[in-house]
Amino acid sequence: MDPLRRSPSPCLSSRPSSPSTPPCEMLGPVGIEAVLDQLKIKAMKMGFEFNIMVVGQSGLGKSTMVNTLFKVWKSNPPGLGVPPPQTLQLHSVTHVIEEKGVKLKLTVTDTPGFGDQINNDNCWDPILGYINEQYEQYLQEELLITRQRHIPDTRVHCCVYFVPPTGHCLRPLDIEFLQRLCQTVNVVPVIARADSLTMEEREAFRRRIQQNLRTHCINVYPQMCFDEDINDRILNSKLRDRIPFAVVGADQEHLVNGRCVLGRKTNWGIIEVENMAHCEFPLLRDLLIRSHLQDLKDITHNVHYENYRVIRLNESHLLPRGPGWVNLAPASPGQLTTPRPFKVCRGAHDDSDDEF
Amino acid sequence: MGEGKKAGPRRARKELAKGRGDAVTQSACALGGTGCEPAAGSGRVRGAVGRRLFSGCLADEASQKMSKQQPTQFINPETPGYVGFANLPNQVHRKSVKKGFEFTLMVVGESGLGKSTLINSLFLTDLYPERVIPGAAEKIERTVQIEASTVEIEERGVKLRLTVVDTPGYGDAINCRDCFKTIISYIDEQFERYLHDESGLNRRHIIDNRVHCCFYFISPFGHGLKPLDVAFMKAIHNKVNIVPVIAKADTLTLKERERLKKRILDEIEEHNIKIYHLPDAESDEDEDFKEQTRLLKASIPFSVVGSNQLIEAKGKKVRGRLYPWGVVEVENPEHNDFLKLRTMLITHMQDLQEVTQDLHYENFRSERLKRGGRKVENEDVNKDQILLEKEAELRRMQEMIARMQAQMQMQMQTGDGDGGALGHHV
């Protein structure tokens, strides 16, 4: 079908008509919507990248959750025979998964050993270091004189934080960690292993966590300040009301009422992972993959990365500090003295800049 | 659980006990089974406690139903060769019933593992009526505290004074290095107090507040024992009987449960942690009891679910937790090991007390008395110090008095005219 001759009605609905501009149909279609197609084709050729980090104590089902989310059965969760490591380690696994012609390069960074020791002081430092390191790598690539066409993006787009289902409230460790990380990366807290809480307990726990987050000024994804318009706000408010999601992960299939479902089989019933009445895994999946994946990447690129970049460029004349902080390449002093103008893609970006 | 079909002497006694028993006051405790049929599997009360509770006092009725010869000896004094000391257990029993039993149970575990719920479920009470769960901000500042609540439970005339020692704040802090110091010092303090009482002059009314048993709650979410668990258990395994319990067991499937239990047992062995071992059934006990003991031993650590809510399931009301996918029944042995834990506690309450007395307390006592010499020296040193300090103070006061006297004399000399105004005495 000739894209230029499509009916003008989609054109009308996407733009609010003002009295001064004449309606589209009178002038004939311009064909702008063809751009969408071109973008789509390009994106499919290039493929998508998504980097996710899962943080939480051992045994909360992080690896199982990732497997359930992306239906990647290659990475086996650490068996029970493997004791949690003595210090916090970070290891990343990359998978390329494909669905209907769309390729996704998924990198999952796991953090075994988080919060498992007796003394968990500063157990978030390696994680922050890793995230900043990825920003630094991207920054270095961006500052080169001859840059690559497509800079490989290893920045962490989303950090899923697993809260143990105590049923009471956030623990001091959770609060410390969330406070620090929300300023650097998009954090989505979830209630792990939610099959140990009844529905009432879940709601009460959720409310208490939300209250804790508000009290300690922890801004989790989706952040209210980055809502672009009223539609976004409505959609995100619904999500914000349900965060943290109570999730259950499973990688085994069982037969329920003739259907094959992912779930956990116990003596008293089968917990279906994709059943909204049982747990909120579909909400998490939709948030991470189906609706907000691009948004996560955008916020990481436009807000968190920019903040990092500003800080780095402002202090580039100072001595480098700490591990993971690389000396900026001194090869192009011109670039350093005149920082490039900010990429103002979001109106809220300046506000958040002032905060930091 | 196997409830034998043969009418052993004790089983008949238990049935009689139910028929004759006094009304249950306060809350029906699990002491002798919750008054339900023996077939419900709540386990028979055995061991010395069981015998004390149920044997003997029902002897006369027992003889009518019994086909064994032992009880008939009680009532027929004309039997040749009958001396009568077979009645001693009755006397002991009567005395103990009058005296009542004391038991102190300590529960340790991270917050949110269901400790309070389990205690309430075990003893069918509400030990924490005004409980306020602290918010996140309070948790940050809090250190481990010890809270002891005592409740008197009476069942069929038998009184039990149960003290539950709770340890809120354990495992909450980011740095948990010091979180068991408070607990260990509490245990030592109880031992110390008992030692002091025992060595005192008036030993009639020694209150036994020593911790007889410690339920250690292991999180079902981990892959076994955490470093904190290991460190804590190693610190107290020589002071108190540890019973490891896997909390919130309804979050595990059967396979996961088995794996976790095995993993925990392996780790306990690997770190040489001495947990409480159930004593083997003696050879003169009947098969039922032996089987029960075997089952109990095989299920350690117990994986339990606690609840006091009554849910309607399959037409009858049971205690359980209602989920959208099913109901977890607390007292269903296929769902969790709650009944086994309760049986173990009741059946071996006496044994737990004995081990505390004979093993842990004696260890403590011998350590303490060995160190005793040094402690006495410290006291002497303190006394000398106190003496010196008092002398110094006395001297200071004397100097002050002398100064004031001198001052007064000076004032009197200068203000001779105003003699009347300076009427104050030293």
TrEMBL record, chain A:
<dbReference type="InterPro" id="IPR027417">
    <property type="entry name" value="P-loop_NTPase"/>
</dbReference>
<dbReference type="InterPro" id="IPR030379">
    <property type="entry name" value="G_SEPTIN_dom"/>
</dbReference>
<dbReference type="GO" id="GO:0048471">
    <property type="term" value="C:perinuclear region of cytoplasm"/>
</dbReference>
<feature type="domain" description="Septin-type G">
    <location>
        <begin position="46"/>
        <end position="315"/>
    </location>
</feature>
<dbReference type="Pfam" id="PF00735">
    <property type="entry name" value="Septin"/>
</dbReference>
<keyword id="KW-0342">GTP-binding</keyword>
<keyword id="KW-0131">Cell cycle</keyword>
<keyword id="KW-0963">Cytoplasm</keyword>
<dbReference type="GO" id="GO:0042803">
    <property type="term" value="F:protein homodimerization activity"/>
</dbReference>
<dbReference type="GO" id="GO:0031105">
    <property type="term" value="C:septin complex"/>
</dbReference>
<protein>
    <submittedName>
        <fullName>Septin 12</fullName>
    </submittedName>
</protein>
<keyword id="KW-0206">Cytoskeleton</keyword>
<dbReference type="GO" id="GO:0030496">
    <property type="term" value="C:midbody"/>
</dbReference>
<dbReference type="GO" id="GO:0005525">
    <property type="term" value="F:GTP binding"/>
</dbReference>
<feature type="region of interest" description="Disordered">
    <location>
        <begin position="1"/>
        <end position="25"/>
    </location>
</feature>
<dbReference type="GO" id="GO:0005819">
    <property type="term" value="C:spindle"/>
</dbReference>
<dbReference type="GO" id="GO:0097227">
    <property type="term" value="C:sperm annulus"/>
</dbReference>
<dbReference type="GO" id="GO:0051301">
    <property type="term" value="P:cell division"/>
</dbReference>
<keyword id="KW-0132">Cell division</keyword>
<keyword id="KW-0547">Nucleotide-binding</keyword>
<comment type="similarity">
    <text>Belongs to the TRAFAC class TrmE-Era-EngA-EngB-Septin-like GTPase superfamily. Septin GTPase family.</text>
</comment>
<feature type="compositionally biased region" description="Low complexity">
    <location>
        <begin position="6"/>
        <end position="18"/>
    </location>
</feature>
From TrEMBL, chain B:
<dbReference type="Pfam" id="PF00735">
    <property type="entry name" value="Septin"/>
</dbReference>
<dbReference type="GO" id="GO:0015629">
    <property type="term" value="C:actin cytoskeleton"/>
</dbReference>
<feature type="domain" description="Septin-type G">
    <location>
        <begin position="99"/>
        <end position="371"/>
    </location>
</feature>
<keyword id="KW-0966">Cell projection</keyword>
<dbReference type="GO" id="GO:0005819">
    <property type="term" value="C:spindle"/>
</dbReference>
<dbReference type="GO" id="GO:0032154">
    <property type="term" value="C:cleavage furrow"/>
</dbReference>
<dbReference type="GO" id="GO:0005930">
    <property type="term" value="C:axoneme"/>
</dbReference>
<dbReference type="GO" id="GO:0030496">
    <property type="term" value="C:midbody"/>
</dbReference>
<dbReference type="GO" id="GO:0045171">
    <property type="term" value="C:intercellular bridge"/>
</dbReference>
<dbReference type="GO" id="GO:0007224">
    <property type="term" value="P:smoothened signaling pathway"/>
</dbReference>
<keyword id="KW-0132">Cell division</keyword>
<dbReference type="GO" id="GO:0097227">
    <property type="term" value="C:sperm annulus"/>
</dbReference>
<keyword id="KW-1003">Cell membrane</keyword>
<dbReference type="InterPro" id="IPR016491">
    <property type="entry name" value="Septin"/>
</dbReference>
<keyword id="KW-0498">Mitosis</keyword>
<dbReference type="GO" id="GO:0009986">
    <property type="term" value="C:cell surface"/>
</dbReference>
<feature type="region of interest" description="Disordered">
    <location>
        <begin position="1"/>
        <end position="21"/>
    </location>
</feature>
<dbReference type="GO" id="GO:0051301">
    <property type="term" value="P:cell division"/>
</dbReference>
<comment type="similarity">
    <text>Belongs to the TRAFAC class TrmE-Era-EngA-EngB-Septin-like GTPase superfamily. Septin GTPase family.</text>
</comment>
<keyword id="KW-0963">Cytoplasm</keyword>
<dbReference type="GO" id="GO:0005654">
    <property type="term" value="C:nucleoplasm"/>
</dbReference>
<dbReference type="InterPro" id="IPR030379">
    <property type="entry name" value="G_SEPTIN_dom"/>
</dbReference>
